[in-house]
Amino acid sequence: MGKKEFEITNNIRTLRFFAGEMTQQQLAEKTNASRQTIIAIEAGKYSPSLDLAFRIAHAFGKPIGEVFEYKKTEE
Amino acid sequence: MGKKEFEITNNIRTLRFFAGEMTQQQLAEKTNASRQTIIAIEAGKYSPSLDLAFRIAHAFGKPIGEVFEYKKTEE
DNA sequence: ACATAATGTTAAGTCTATTGTACATCGTGA
DNA sequence: TCACGATGTACAATAGACTTAACATTATGT
C-alpha cells in the first residue's frame, strides 16, 4: 500500500504573503473556518473539503486551481 | 438558520454526456469512488472532498474549476 | 414476457475533516 | 524583563464524506 500517485499541494502561504501578510487568523475569519484548520491545511496535513477550498480561493480572489494543485507525485 | 450565500454546482452530467455517454459506474471506477458517491455528488446532495473533486476533473481531462463552480445563490 | 443495464434510494458503519480548548514557542516592542 | 501577536501541537468530540449492501424503477433489446 504504497504511495499515492497524485498529491494535492497548495499555495496558501505564498498567497497570504502577497495579500499583505494576511494572518492565518484573518484567513480563518474570512473563510469562516477555525485557525487550526487553516494551519493544518496550509501545512498539508490533510486536504480541505471542496467547500472550504472554494472559500479559501475566494478569500484570495483567485480561481481554485491557482490555490490548490493536483499533480503526480515525484521522487 | 438561513440559506448559504454561496453554493457549489457541478457539470458532471453534461461532462458525462460529452464523454460519449460515460456511465456513472464508469466514472466511479475511473475515479476510484463508489457508484453511490458519484450519484450523490452529481445530484448535489453533498459536495465531494477536494481530493475526489480533483479525481473527477481528471477523469474528464478538465480543470477543477470547469467541473465545479462556486457562485452566489440566487432567487 | 423476460433479462439486462443504468439510475436512484436507504441504512449502518467507517474514516476524515473540522471544531473548541488548552498550552507551548518564537520574535518584537515597550 | 514583561506583554503580546502569530504560529504550532495535542486531544476529545462532532459533522460530514464515503463505503458496502440490498432493493426499486425505468428503459432497451430479444
Residue fraction in strands of chain A: 5-15%
CATH architecture of one domain in chain A: Orthogonal Bundle
CATH class categorisation of one domain in chain A: Mainly Alpha
Total E-strand runs of chain A: 2
Write down the Rg of chain A. 13 Å
What does this structure look like?
The structure is a homodimer of 75-residue chains. Chain A has a domain at 25-75: 434 Repressor (Amino-terminal Domain). The first copy, chain A, has helices at residues 12-18, 24-31, 35-42, 50-60, 64-67; strands spanning 6-10, 68-72. In chain A, helix 2 crosses helix 3. The first copy, chain A, has a two-stranded antiparallel ribbon with strand order 1-2. The model of chain A has no long low-confidence stretch (mean pLDDT 95). Chain A is of the alpha+beta class and 75 residues long. The A-B interface holds A 6, 8, 47-51, 53-55, 57-58, 63-65, 68, 70 and B 6, 8, 47-51, 53-55, 57-58, 63-65, 68, 70. Chain A binds a DNA duplex (30 and 30 nucleotides) through helix 3.
List the helices and strands and how they pair.
The structure is a homodimer of 75-residue chains.
Chain A: E1 6-10, H1 12-18, H2 24-31, H3 35-42, H4 50-60, H5 64-67, E2 68-72
Antiparallel strand pairs in A: 1-2
Helix pairs in contact in A: 2-3
The structure holds a DNA duplex (30 and 30 nucleotides).
